[in-house]
C-alpha cells in the first residue's frame, strides 16, 4: 500500500476538549486498507464517494477495497486528553492549550492513518476553532476564513513526511518573529515572550551553519519554535513546528550558562533533525539511532563552530558519552540498531544508547576517517535519500565512498552488537602490549571489536585498527604514554602502570577519560579504592572544568553512597576547587563554581550557611549562582525554608526559576518536607512534566532516601501513568535506583517484580543492575 496524501479538516470544541474530523486519503493498494486508530470514533468510510463497509478492531480501521487507486474518505471524532502524548491539553495559569506529541506512534490517537515512518505522505490541513484562538501547524497559513463565531485556518501543503512529524497546536499565543529565510517564529502562551529573542537568534545561526555544512537549504518557508507549558520530553522535531519544554527553549542573558547552553543544544538538536530525520527518515524504528544519534552529534558540532569558547566537545563527554558508557556496560543493554517488533517497544529505546552511544560512535568514526570526508559523506547521503527513507547501511556506504576507508566493515560491529571493549595496556620491554576484553560492571559474554586505537608514546602519535584479542607495538623505552587520544574512541583503557600516563601532558578530554574509566573500574571491582583514589589525587588540582565537573559528579555520588568512606576526599576536593573557581566571571567558570558549590553545600553545613547569606539578594544573582544559593539556603535552613521557597515557587513566572526552586526544595535534609513536595504533583501545584526528573535531587541524604522509597512504593504506578506512552518513567528509574536502592537491593528487586510497570521494565532492570555494582563499594 502507498499513501500519497492526507487532506484533513478538524473542527475543535475548545471548551469541551473534543473535535470532529474529516479526512480524504489518496492511496494505492493491491488488497484492502488498514488504518491505525486508537481512542477514536469512526463514523463513516467512503470509497470514491460511495459508502463502504468497515471494521474497527485491534485499533485498526479495516476496509475491503480490493485493488484500488483513489480517495478514501473517513469521518471521525475524538477527545483531547489530559495525557502527555497524542493530542492533549497543556494547562497554564488556569487556562490551557492543545498540543500534539506523535512520536513514535501516537498520530493514530488524533487521526486514522498509516502510522508508520516509511509511509510518507503530503498533508493538507485545515482547522476550525472559536474566534480568538490561533492554530499553529507545520506549514504557514495559506488563508483564514471567518464563519460566525468560528475561524478556519487553512495551511499550505507539506512535503512528503511521516505521520509522527505532523503538528497541531491550538490556543492563545504570543509570537516573536525574526525576518529571515526561513522565517523564524518563537511562540509562547501569553506572558512568556520576553525570553524568545535569544532562542530565535540561535535558530537563525544554526540553520545557516547547517545549510552550509550539509550543502542543502532548509526545506520549509518557516520554522516555529513552540514553548509548550506541559511537555514530557525536552523537545520534538515536528517538521517546521518544533515543540519544546519551556526550560528547553526560553532563556535570556540572565538565565545563566547552564540554561543558555541547554537551550542552545536542544534548539540545535531539533534543527539538525529537520535534515536528519525529517528530510531523510529511517525506514523503521530499529534505526531510531539514525535520527537521534546524528542530531545529538551535530548539535554539539554546530554549536562548537559558533561558540568555541563553550568547549562543547567536553560537554559532549559529560552529557552523552558518560551515560552511554555506563548503560552499555550492564547486561540489560542493546545494540545501537536494535530489533523493534512493535511501536510500543520503541519508547524504551529512546535512551543513552540510541542517543549517546550512537553519537559517540559517530565522533569516533569522524576521528578515524577525517572531518572533511565525514562531511562529504553526510551530504552525499542526505542528497541521495531526500524526502525518502534510509537504513544504517546507506549511511556507511556514503561515508565509505567519501573517505575510501572501510567504514562498512567496522561500523556493523559497533552498531549491530552491544557492549564495548576495555583495552589493557602493559609495557613489556621495548614493546607495548594491548589486550582487549569486553567491559562490564557484571559478567558479560566475551567479544572482540575492531577498535580504532590512537596513542602517543614519548610525544609520538601512532594509530591502528586493532581487530584481534591482542597486539604488540615496538615503541622503545617508555617515559610518557597515553591511549585513546582526546577520548575519541568508545572504549576504556586500563594501565598496568599509571606512572608514564601521569607523567604525560593530558588534554582535558584525556583527564576526563582517565577519571571516568577508573570510576567504572572501581564499580566493576577491577581496581581497589586506593587505586581509584590515586587517579583522583592526580587530578585534585585540575585547572580545566571538564575533569573538575567529572570528579565533582563522582565524588558527590560517592559521598551520598557512604559519607564515612568517601566523605573526606569528597570534601577536600570540593573545598579546594570551590576556592579556585569562586572568582571566575566567564560563563563556563560561573557554571562550574555553581555545581561545586551545590555539592559542597550538601556536604559541609558551614559552607552552606555561608553561601545561603546571598539568598536575600536572590533576584539579582546570576542564573547559575541562583541554583547554588537556593540549595544552600534549603540545606542550611531546613524545613524552616519550606514556606518561603514554596511561596517563591508558586509566584515564579518562568519554569526556569520554578525548576531551580523545586530542586532546592527537594534537596532539603528533611524527609517529611521532601515527600510533601513530591506529592504536589497530585494537587496540580507541580507540573506533571517535573515530578520524575526532579526525583534525583531528593536522594543525597540516607534518611530522605528512606522516605522517598516509601513514597515510590505507594505512588509508583500513579506516577508512571502520568508518563504512559513516553518511556520516561523507566529511563529515569535507571538513573534513580542506583542511589535510591542502597541498602535495600533485594527489597527493590522484589517490589518491582511484584508491581511491574508496563513500558518501564528495561529501565528498572538497568537501575537494579547498576545498583548491584554500586553496592560493592558501599
Written description of the protein model:
Among the domains are: 172 residues, Sandwich (Immunoglobulin-like), CATH 2.60.40.1730; 136 residues, Neutral Protease Domain 2 (Neutral Protease, domain 2); 118 residues, Sandwich (Immunoglobulin-like), CATH 2.60.40. 42% of the residues lie in helices and 22% in strands. The protein is built from 25 helices and 29 strands. The strands form eight sheets. Strands 5-4-8-2-1-11-14-13 form an eight-stranded mixed β-sheet, with no helix packed on it. Strand 19 and strand 20 form a beta hairpin. It is globular. The relative contact order is 0.07.
Main sheet properties: 8 strands, mixed
Instruction: Please state how the strands of the largest beta sheet are arranged side by side.
Output: 5-4-8-2-1-11-14-13
Shape-level CATH architecture of the domain at 1-172: Sandwich
Helix-residue proportion:
40-55%
Which stretches are poorly predicted, pLDDT < 50 over at least 5 residues? Answer: none
Query: What is the overall pLDDT average?
Result: 95
Report the top-level CATH class of the domain at 1-172: Mainly Beta
Q: Report the portion of residues in β strands.
A: 15-25%
- CATH fold-level topology of the domain at 1-172: Immunoglobulin-like
User: Which class do the helix and strand fractions yield?
Assistant: alpha+beta
Number of helical segments?
A: 25
- Beta-strand segment tally: 29
Ends distance: 58 Å
Shape descriptor? globular
Radius of gyration: 27 Å
The CATH superfamily of the domain at 1-172 is tricorn interacting facor f3 domain
Organism: Metallosphaera sedula (strain ATCC 51363 / DSM 5348 / JCM 9185 / NBRC 15509 / TH2)
Cofactor: Zn(2+)
Site (Transition state stabilizer): 355
Domain ERAP1-like C-terminal: 481-772
